[in-house]
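## tool: complex_structure
## caller: assistant
## args:
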Amino acid sequence: MDLLSEKFKRLGIDNAPGQEVLQKDVALDLRGEPLPGPAVNFSHGDVDAHIPTPGSLDLFVEGFKKGGCVAYTEYRGGKGERDDVAAKLAAFTGAPIDPDNEIIITPGTQGALFLALGCLVGRGDKVAIVEPDYFDNRKLVEFFEGELVPVKLDYLSQNTCAGVNLDALEESFKEGVKLFLFSNPNNPTGVIYSRKEIEGIASLAKKYNVTLLVDQLYSRQIFDNHPYTHLRALKDRPDNMLTIMGPSKTESLSGFRLGTAFGSKWIIDRMEKLQAIVTLRAPGYSQYVLKCWFNEPEGFMAKRVAEHQRIRDDLVALVRSHEGCAVRTTEGGSYIFPQLPPMDVSISDFAKIVRKLTGVVITPGTEFGPQFTRNFRVNFSQDHDNAINAIDRVLQIMERYRSK
Amino acid sequence: MDLLSEKFKRLGIDNAPGQEVLQKDVALDLRGEPLPGPAVNFSHGDVDAHIPTPGSLDLFVEGFKKGGCVAYTEYRGGKGERDDVAAKLAAFTGAPIDPDNEIIITPGTQGALFLALGCLVGRGDKVAIVEPDYFDNRKLVEFFEGELVPVKLDYLSQNTCAGVNLDALEESFKEGVKLFLFSNPNNPTGVIYSRKEIEGIASLAKKYNVTLLVDQLYSRQIFDNHPYTHLRALKDRPDNMLTIMGPSKTESLSGFRLGTAFGSKWIIDRMEKLQAIVTLRAPGYSQYVLKCWFNEPEGFMAKRVAEHQRIRDDLVALVRSHEGCAVRTTEGGSYIFPQLPPMDVSISDFAKIVRKLTGVVITPGTEFGPQFTRNFRVNFSQDHDNAINAIDRVLQIMERYRSK
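## result:
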């Protein structure tokens, strides 16, 4: 088999969120009757239950009516949109952003991640990646033929920090890692890195000249007023770094395909060159919608966070009510990552069985690291009652497969 | 310098259409006074002069209101949208398309090109590319570390075919080319491949097992009822091929970022895997807009083609009125690619001088192949009078630099 065929064979997406409809029928050990109820898809948020920012569609229409000047922007995004969003992101993250040189508007944060990795990972380059972390990070490193160096996140045994092993991180940096990539709040566990952890990461990156890429997609959805440290606001931040944020999650604007990346000029310059051949630009009229980001109606964000906190509380309690189940309380974002007791089936088959017997879609933990054979991820940005009902059924199914 | 730095150094975009605002000031040999007039940007079409398909915005709004089911589609595009667009493209191109397996909806046709090349070009793979042809084709081959094998298009001396050299093409196939990529109508010359040429290409591809990728972006905008042969409709079409089309040009829907690619199942499967890590999907609400594609109001397309034909006629006559200027009459699409007489400045400096003295943006021929040192490309999808006025001024400036 040639190199490309090998590469695409490894790039599986059948278990990727949203792709479950493509799964081939396989022989499953189905136990008991179906448990009917709402067909919740926990692989992504429900933008019907938590609607897009009010006014977002009006802005799109306004952008469309402005015409060509909005349809055809520079590859890095329209000047007006960059000026506006750079100022807002600078205020939020606590450090200035030069709108001409230090920010690019991308087709979703996925677009930002792809461009960033495409600019930073050459063949054979070592990339440190947290386990567990967003599943596509691993695939991106594979696609660009980098070498993945996993860094364990000991999230379950901690409660005052995320649990990153800084000694192991330093070891990996010593061994030649060029890029360290992590999400904060962490996807899929919802833990937030402590100030000490962020400072530790920054200081190691400076010492070993490692580029840092932090995915802060969920950094606006923080619960219980948990402290949050913006890496880029540190006095001693490293020279080479990039932050990624976008309005697809908490703000439910995913259907517009918008993201941003901001940081070192040389990285942004490269990303624009790559964007020029990948998609030319983020959708022009959609870029105009960024005007409502960080500019939501009074009380909108507080209410959204409170609603998600309530769903989280009820789900966490439900998971913990089953013996042998463990879950860390989400500090930020819309995910929980429950660990189940040993079962008679693999987590991947369990997800398929759950879909067959309940109509509920969950994401197997192994998408986030090979060792998470008893975990699954839930995006709880759903209707409250449906979410509770659905996870209750998932756990009832789990009981049928619990190892004796 | 490391491999990645080298690669990104080669990926220049300063002369790329739409990026001219980023050009650094350089010392230019400016002759004579500015020629004021409309600031036409010939690097892309003017969607204010030729407005988006009526009803397109309404469809976007309808899609938005449908909510989550439109925002979150499968990576290859929503099932309903694929069913609809596959049927329409099958009817247009004259051969069936399986909507489940043989089509993917992409963020623009640029997105389609990127995904296709990413799936078909491995390190060191030989790729035959027409010269002149769309400038990003060359950059994509470079990015994926393929080896570019140029195939000359002798477009100026022909008038019953595009002028592809089939003998040279066969030579390149013999030497191990894996992929042949070309646009039809050709960008930037506007010529259409004859039936004999298309059949010749198909037959060579079959003989040497070369994959074909044909960019038919402008195949709905054909002038003078010129015959057009759809490669994929040939009885003897090769097994491995892909066609790319989208509604960004003739239909002026670029601001929605929509494209499609359709062809061999294995290529579409790979493209979806790649799309999953590049942008996840084409913008969800935008996908819904595809319902108006090939479904335009009565007479809309005929009028649009007629309007462009009139602009073409007047521009071609204007170019030919200057001694030593040559241009082939556009058979399809919105481009002319005039050849100028020898001048005292390079074509790249000439484009910069034109921008300084007239406010008009043209694209240097060297973006389309290193040998086009006396050509420039014009996207004439503009207001008629502005376009004539602007090219008149460009040619007046040319006269100031004509070599004695």
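## assistant note: The first strand of chain B starts at residue 103 and ends at 106. Residues 300-320 of chain B form the longest helix (21 residues). Handing back to user.
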